[in-house]
Specification:
Distance between the termini: 40 Å
Number of helices: 14
Structural class: alpha/beta
Strand content: 5-15%
Order of helices and strands: HHEHEHEHEHHHHEHEHHEHEH
Radius of gyration: 20 Å
Shape: globular
């Protein structure tokens, strides 16, 4: 397959998650919805189930308003709205982590709003690094395992988890490689987004096969001197979600490419590998303990700000764009520190508000255009 063929295939998957769901159901597979941010996909995968990301969609909210106030994360609102409209019909269950107030709310509301799809909570500790925190996480995984066995009629074994961990570690490596290559080759913001977004809806072994081909094609372009045009404005993006096609097109219209990201739905998923030396279930809990630099993970030192400025320097970025999810308190708290860190290192930055309900990004267009002109 050519580079264009692979990108088109990934774009098709990214834009049609419902078709992807039907494909797996048609093949006789059981699919588990994984609500962001850090649902234990390796565990679900190891039980012969298909983990599929539920990150909502750019839709108007109607029915979910019965359960949520207007001032809550639109990602969670749209996930519940899609569930109530039947868009997730066919899922065997959904797993919801408990890493922010909005996530804590959606699980209980889901039980009443979408009773036909069972809800499985994954309770994570914020004090995750200490040994007691790792043990707590491991026990949380055992509860998820028990519920998946009950609901889906499957069995868990650690040898299968070990194999799934290897597949996911390989995927992490391929996605990190792609992020680096995309900063140096002709990859548009919309193409880059499709690569990351498609990974949320595909079995990782299937995505791995396409990513190997894509990375090989981009490496060949780089070796042949077909690198990114020097007149492009290079930015680092940060936030929870940055997949809105209209917003990404505004970046393209202003000659902007994404040199790197600190986005929860993108590179944050792939920073941390799972240790292959520890017992598999313990290793999965240790992986969560080692995750860091994220607004929904406790970090007294707020190292995320330095990660963003260091990434901007490493990728030779001209600036930072913070994609601020509206009403996301953890992200709003972090923004103040990110702003100060960018100012201290003289890195130009702007903030653009993201809302799943927004249909018109004219205000964002004005902000981004002014940023590009500066």
């Amino acid at each position: 397959m050519t580079k264009e063929d692979i990108l088109n295939e990934l774009q098709k998957t990214a834009s049609s998650p419902k078709a992807q769901l039907q494909k797996y159901l048609g093949a006789g597979k059981k699919v588990i919805g994984c609500v962001p941010v850090y649902t234990p996909e390796e565990l679900i995968h190891s039980m012969g189930l298909v983990p599929m990301g539920l990150w909502g969609a750019d839709i108007q909210i109607k029915d979910a308003k019965k359960f949520f106030p207007a001032f809550i994360c639109s990602i969670m609102q749209s996930v519940l709205e899609l569930g109530m409209k039947g868009s997730y019909k066919g899922l065997s269950a959904i797993v919801v982590p408990s890493l922010c107030d909005s996530l804590k709310c959606i699980g209980q509301n889901w039980k009443y709003a979408v009773p036909e799809i069972p809800f499985i909570p994954m309770t994570y500790p914020q004090n995750r690094v200490a040994d007691f925190g790792i043990t707590f996480t491991e026990k949380g995984y055992l509860i998820v395992i028990k519920e998946l066995e009950r609901i889906c009629g499957v069995k868990f074994d650690e040898e299968s988890l070990k194999k799934s961990i290897e597949i996911y570690n390989t995927h992490n490596e391929l996605m990190r490689e792609f992020s680096s290559l995309a900063a140096e080759t002709e990859i548009t913001p919309r193409q880059r987004s499709a690569v990351f977004k498609s990974a949320l809806f595909m079995l990782k072994e299937e995505h791995n096969a396409l990513m190997r081909e894509l990375n090989d094609a981009l490496t060949a372009e780089k070796q042949n001197g077909k690198t990114v045009q020097t007149d492009k404005i290079r930015i680092v993006t940060s936030g929870i979600l940055a997949d809105n096609g209209a917003l990404l097109k505004i970046l393209e219209d202003n000659n902007i490419i994404i040199a790197g990201d600190d986005v929860a739905a993108e590179s944050r998923q792939y920073r941390t590998d799972c240790c292959t030396q520890s017992p598999p279930l313990r290793a999965l809990a240790e992986k969560f303990a080692h995750m860091d630099c994220c607004s929904v993970l406790y970090d007294a030192d707020k190292k995320r700000a330095d990660l963003i400025t260091d990434l901007a320097a490493d990728r030779k970025a001209d600036g930072v764009i913070v994609m601020q999810t509206k009403f996301c308190d953890p992200e709003e708290f972090d923004y103040v520190i990110i702003k100060e860190a960018c100012a201290a290192k003289k890195i130009p930055h702007i903030i653009v508000e993201i809302d799943r309900h927004i249909t018109n990004y004219d205000q964002a267009r004005t902000i981004i255009q002014s940023f590009a002109e500066m």
